[in-house]
């Protein structure tokens, strides 16, 4: 299946991203620390969502509006007393030339919802925070179902080797550039 291949071919860059996110999460001790983490996601994913939006309509992904997560990040930051700032127009983003690359980038964004439950528990315990978790709990009890639906879409749409190569390249770039952005703002 395409999704299994996509996962295998981006494993190294995915693990590197997870490593840096985990380091940031482990250092959260206050609301300000958590806002800083949310701001990193808000800035990067906000710029990424704007870049991929022209290529991902409802014809390709019927529930695409529900898969836009930046508004949740903005709400979380604001609920904690922060001000969401998109900034960083010069941010390195993957090369998006068509829907294939857009799906590769969205693979990274959607994948970020999978570990949300554990991130919430860790942040809540470390910093005694009880709110500001709508991004990390984006789909709530439906997270696994939403991930399966996304996998079905990708498996149905990415059908040729060229589609696969372009999707993998964009996912890999998204992980790599997101890791660099985290390191730069860490």
Describe this structure in words.
The chain has 186 residues and is mainly α. It is 65% helix and 0% strand. The mean pLDDT is 94.
Overall pLDDT metric: 94
Class from secondary-structure proportions: mainly alpha
| Percent of residues in beta strands | under 5%
Report low-confidence residues grouped into runs of 5 or more. none
Taken in chain order, the helices and strands follow as HHHHHHHH
- Radius of gyration, whole Å: 16 Å
Helical stretch count? 8
- Give the helix proportion (percent range): 55-70%
Give the overall shape.
Answer: globular
Major beta-sheet overview: none
Query: How many strands?
Result: 0
Distance between the termini: 36 Å
Write a brief structural summary:
With 186 residues, this protein is mainly alpha-helical. It has 8 helices and no strands.
Tag the structure with descriptive keywords.
186 residues, mainly alpha, 8 helices, 65% helix
Summarize the topology.
Blueprint lengths: L1 H8 L1 H16 L4 H22 L17 H10 L19 H13 L4 H12 L15 H15 L3 H24 L2
Helix pairs in contact: 2-8, 3-4, 3-5, 5-8
């Amino acid at each position: 299946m395409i999704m299994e291949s996509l996962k295998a071919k981006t494993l190294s860059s995915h693990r590197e991203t997870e490593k840096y996110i985990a380091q940031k999460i482990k250092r959260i001790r206050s609301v300000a620390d958590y806002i800083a983490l949310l701001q990193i996601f808000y800035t990067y994913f906000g710029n990424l969502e704007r870049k991929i939006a022209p290529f991902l309509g409802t014809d390709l992904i019927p529930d695409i509006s529900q898969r836009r997560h930046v508004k949740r990040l903005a709400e979380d930051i604001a609920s904690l007393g922060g001000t969401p700032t998109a900034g960083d127009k010069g941010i390195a983003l993957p090369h998006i030339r068509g829907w294939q690359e857009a799906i590769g980038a969205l693979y990274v964004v959607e994948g970020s919802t999978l570990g949300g439950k554990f991130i919430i528990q860790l942040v809540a315990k470390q910093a005694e925070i009880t709110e500001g978790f709508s991004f990390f709990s984006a789909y709530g009890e439906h997270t696994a179902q939403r991930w399966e639906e996304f996998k079905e879409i990708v498996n149905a749409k990415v059908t040729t080797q060229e589609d696969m190569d372009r999707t993998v390249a964009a996912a890999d770039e998204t992980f790599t550039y997101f890791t660099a952005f985290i390191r730069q703002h860490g």
